[in-house]
Amino acid sequence: MMNRPALEAHPQPATQPRQPPDIESDWALFLDLDGTLLDLAPTPTSVVVPDGLVDVLRRLHHRLHGAVAIVTGRPLADIDQLLAPLVLPVAGNHGASARLPDGTQQALAPVQPLPPGWVTQAQAACAQWPGTIVEPKPYSLALHYRLAPEHADNVFNLLRCFAAERADDYEILTAHYAYELRPRHADKGMAIERLMALAPFHGRVPVFIGDDVTDESGRAAARRLGGIGLDVGESFSGSAAHVRQWLAKAVGDQDT
Ligand SMILES: [Mg+2]
């Protein structure tokens, strides 16, 4: 059995704040969703959008003149469903696609749909491992084991077999109680760089917040562009509720 990669710590450079500074009006905010704005849930479909969050995001979007985007591993449609009626710029599918500030959708990387058969093979395998969950996405495949940690090695090894078939195109990401096979040629950092080239993001200070190792490219891009990359674990005690309180404070709502 292969050793699984350990969850890595990503210490922030000394110049990066550990405590989140107050949100400034010249920022461009890039926000991961699961584990950052929303509490993690046992399954991807059981997340809860807390009362008040959509209104806080709407008011932040107004305060920052539109420079608020969701940057997520989920497909774009998930975000619109979860944050309805709010429609924000989104980079989805780990940066493979985006809805730009003008509303147009665009592929950001030369990715292709998943090879046929992977999803059905994964579903057949995971049926033998109770508690594991297959989450097919347009360009990637996540296998969750939060409800069955004893099967972590099984789901990792299955994805490793798939990745070996297309080693140039796919890599395995380690997430919270999940592994995800995703295209090598897209990441959240690339998506942030693309959005930062466009109004109303261009010329602002990029600030990205994420909770997972999959977010490191986003944090790195924000720093590279002169901004701030924050980790929920380091700067918000690992609590999405603390992120929400920080955002709410910026728009004068202490109770959200
Ligand atoms: Mg996350």
From TrEMBL:
Q: What GO terms are given for molecular function?
A: metal ion binding; trehalose-phosphatase activity
The record lists the catalysed reaction(s) as:
alpha,alpha-trehalose 6-phosphate + H2O = alpha,alpha-trehalose + phosphate
Matches recorded under Gene3D superfamilies: HAD superfamily/HAD-like, Trehalose-6-phosphate phosphatase related protein, domain 2
Q: In which pathway does it act?
A: Glycan biosynthesis; trehalose biosynthesis
Q: What does this protein do?
A: Removes the phosphate from trehalose 6-phosphate to produce free trehalose.
Top EC class of this enzyme:
hydrolase
SUPFAM superfamilies noted in UniProt: HAD-like (SSF56784)
Q: Which family does it belong to?
A: Belongs to the trehalose phosphatase family.
Tell me which Gene Ontology terms the entry assigns under biological process: trehalose biosynthetic process
Protein name in UniProt = Trehalose 6-phosphate phosphatase
**What is the gene name?**
otsB
Cofactor(s) listed: Mg(2+)
InterPro entries named among the record's database cross-references? HAD-like_sf, HAD-SF_hydro_IIB, HAD_sf, OTSB-like, Trehalose_PPase
The segment annotated Disordered runs over 1-22
Respond yes or no to whether keyword tRNA-binding is given for this record.
Answer: no
Q: Which UniProt keywords apply?
A: Hydrolase, Magnesium, Metal-binding
Documented EC number(s): 3.1.3.12
